[in-house]
User: Fold this.
Amino acid sequence: MYKIRHLLLGVVMTLYSIGLLTACASSDSLSRCGISQDSLSALVDQVWTFSQSHPDGFTLDLRSMTEPSEGIAVSYAATQDCHSRGQLRQVITHALQHDGYVGGWFNAADGLYYFDSTRLFHEDSLAMALDFGRDNDQRSVFILSTATDIPVSGTVAAIVQRGTLYIGTTGDYRPLSFCEPETGDYWGFGIEIASAIAHRMGIAPTFVHTSWPTLTSDVLADPQRFDFAIGGITITDARRETMAMSEGYLANGKTILCRTEDAPRFRALADIDHPEVRVMVNPGGLNEKFAREHLMHATIIVHQQNEEIPSLIAQGTADVMITEITEAPYYVQSDSRLAAPLLDKPFTRGEIGVLMRQGQDDLLAMVNAVIRQMKADGSLRRLHDKYGLVYAY
Assistant:
């Protein structure tokens, strides 16, 4: 690999030394640049050799002979169906006359390399990249930083063309998703994840109210109410049977909130399962499901507004709230009357993810790509720290 890169750089430096490579990028004709056929042949040979060691695909900047790590790569129609070393010469000639990028990959199905002259867009210019892809009869564009293919006529393309990402969220689940009643503004950990996804698509987020009892029906509604749902949604096999879920971005598990003075009283689930213990849950979600499956004797009270339950526990209206390890710390920090004595021993373990209807594979790929990148660049950990959440990745 070192020898290949060294030879490539040697060719480029030769072209630069006679002032040709940058001129070719804007010239209408390679002949006007005065590049000798020998120099061009040497460049073709070295790119061909480079391609043999990168069968899974590459985008190469001919000006530096390096692979850019960011950008949206889109191929030109003029160089489609170029496979051989001879056709690679045409591709490189076109690239030198235009943007200076060459892309390629090996198709194991037909045993052919596919080479293209490539244009590179900034990663916040997805709309422009998709337009260019359509204009050049491409099936997809490729985001380099996340290795994500985005079809030019898929779900993501339609959302980008619309200019708004519609996001369903309950707005009642601090610190993941909360809607301020006075202003209608949404904030929280999940809201910031959704905003990061919208930003990657180059469009604005618009939040749409949903509820725990209607979450599934809202996701599956026709016409579609929103593109995906976010905010405290646990990844489950049952949900995946009828809907699609992203990779996890937050560790989760069932626990309890109770009054501070009652904390010594509740050391295990068995301590809660008595008729005199009033357990309050919000309707329709996994908290109610968990309570009804595991508490056969406790008195279960369903309260419509999830965000009101902690204060009702503190006031003594009920004794225990079934909640998540993601939600409980916020209320303990916000109200000294509350405790979460089983926070370090959750009854269940799982992850929270993004929920959407099936058949939106490119949107799911985009969401997963953003989550992976946030894990890799440290921004997801910083977001955990901001909201006092336990980082598990």
